[in-house]
Automatic annotation (TrEMBL):
This is Cytidine deaminase. The lineage of its organism: Bacteria, Pseudomonadati, Pseudomonadota, Gammaproteobacteria, Thiotrichales. Zn(2+) binds at residues 54, 89, 92. It comes from Cysteiniphilum litorale. GO terms for cellular component: cytosol. Transmembrane segments: none annotated. Keywords: Hydrolase, Metal-binding, Zinc. GO terms for biological process: nucleobase-containing small molecule metabolic process; pyrimidine-containing compound metabolic process. Belongs to the cytidine and deoxycytidylate deaminase family.
Length: 131
C-alpha cells in the first residue's frame, strides 16, 4: 500500500466509522490485495449481540465480494481501541485461513501505533480445520 505510518493513519480515520455502541470497542481493518486494491472494514454491532460482525471479517468479505480469492491477498492491517495490539478472534482466524496463504502479513497495531506486530495465519491458527 504505502508507508506503514500512512497505513496506520488511514486505519485511525477508518476506526471512527466503527459501529460499536454496545462494547464501545472500535476496531478497523484494511485489506491490501496484490493488485493494489484496498478494502475496508469496521466492527458492526447489533442489539442482538451475536449478530454483530468483526472488522476483519467485514474487510475480508468486502474483498471477496469484489472478486478476490485465495492467492489475491497481500496483507491485513488492524487496529482497535486498546493499549496493546488486539489479535483476531477465533472466528476471524478461520475466515483468514479460508483466504490467506501463509505469506499474507497480518499487521496488528495498538491504538496509538506505538506497537506493531506481524503474524502469519499458520502462526495464529495452527492445526486448523480445512476441506
Ligand atoms: N472485534 C473485532 O472487530 N475484531 C477483533 O479482532 C476482536 C473483536 C469486535 C467485535 C465487537 O464488536 C467488539 O470488537 C468487542 O468484542
Amino acid at each position: 500500500m504505502h508507508e506503514i505510518n500512512e497505513v496506520f493513519r488511514k486505519l485511525q480515520v477508518l476506526k471512527k466509522r466503527a459501529y460499536a455502541p454496545y462494547s464501545n470497542f472500535s476496531v478497523a481493518a484494511m485489506i491490501e490485495l496484490k493488485n493494489g486494491d484496498v478494502h475496508e472494514g469496521v466492527n458492526v454491532e447489533n442489539a442482538s449481540f451475536p449478530v454483530g460482525s468483526c472488522a476483519e471479517m467485514v474487510a475480508i468479505n468486502a474483498a471477496v465480494a469484489s472478486g478476490a480469492r485465495k492467492g489475491d491477498f497481500k496483507a491485513i492491517y488492524v487496529t482497535a481501541d486498546a493499549r496493546n495490539p488486539v489479535t483476531p478472534c477465533g472466528a476471524c482466524r478461520q475466515v483468514m485461513a479460508e483466504f490467506f496463504d501463509n505469506d499474507v502479513v497480518i499487521h496488528l497495531f495498538n491504538q496509538d501505533g506505538t506497537e506493531h506486530e506481524q503474524y502469519s495465519i499458520d502462526h495464529l491458527l495452527p492445526e486448523r480445520f480445512c476441506l
